[in-house]
Specification:
The chain is mainly α and 315 residues long. The protein is 42% helix and 5% strand. It has 14 helices and five strands. A three-stranded antiparallel beta sheet has the order 1-2-3. A hairpin with a 2-residue loop joins strand 1 and strand 2. The longest helix is centred in the middle third of the chain and has 17 residues. It starts with 17 loop residues before the first helix and ends in a 10-residue tail after the last helix.
Length: 315
Amino acid sequence: MRVDKLPLLVTPGEDEPAHGLLLRFAKRNGVKDLRTMRELTDMSVARLRLGHGAGHLAELLQCSPDLFMRSTTEPIVRGVVSLRGERLRTSDHLLIKRRRVCPTCITEAAHQRFWFDLSFVSTCPRHQVTLVDACSCGTALTWKDVDIEKCSHCQDGSVFRMTLKSPGNDVLAMNRWALGKLGVGDPVPVPILDGMPLWTALNIVNRVGVLAAEGYTCWRGVDGYDTPAHQLQANGFRVLQLGLLDQALDEVYEQYLTAKTRKLAETLRTIYGFFGQWFKIWYHSKHFVEQARPFAEIVIANAARKSVFDIEVKK
């Protein structure tokens, strides 16, 4: 049974996405679960997450969709969305099933922020705490919950009773930079990354982070190592922010020389392990952007000092 209106309205909050509004709208009207909300309104978290049904949600809330669409992703092509002018991959950059919050943020204003759902953001830089992804009862927060501060499986649990963890300064710095690119907080200038599309910069940050932490190794994805992904990303950001990429490449090359057990032709693909293989393919692909040239020039110059010239420099 679809309804044309629900009696109690909510006003979109700062940085609140459409799917977060649905959760708060349901609670305001005493709807106990989001399945019932879908039956009443024909709207779901999954569809609203991509902006589908945003017009109907705005009608029910009696507001302009512009009040929340800036914080809501919109589809571009399959697997790629737009958020505040930046392209993101749904598989790499968005958390679909997990729900996270900053308890201090929702104490100040009890609504979801779009950046709680970004996989490359693990903290609240404003309050300097790690985002919480579980209720005090121990159950993971999900998008089946209606109450933003707890799961749907217990009566009296609350994220407000969770012990908040303090992240490292390097993780906070990376998160401040990433959120600054999306208009949250103050922009953080990093010359080697400035001007790049966010998803290009994140790809580079991930690769450099694994290079610096894992050395001469195979690529298993930023989530494929014992070191947590957010720490690897923070490592990569720190290397790029402090201008240590050249040093990191030298250290990996020394590991290559030490581990070398048979004569191999020294090429970009061999001297840096996974990083060189990725770089050569990426550099000559459609995904390379001119704004990434300063980064690329450091890699090519480092290889050239080692008499490795198996890559044609783009003019």
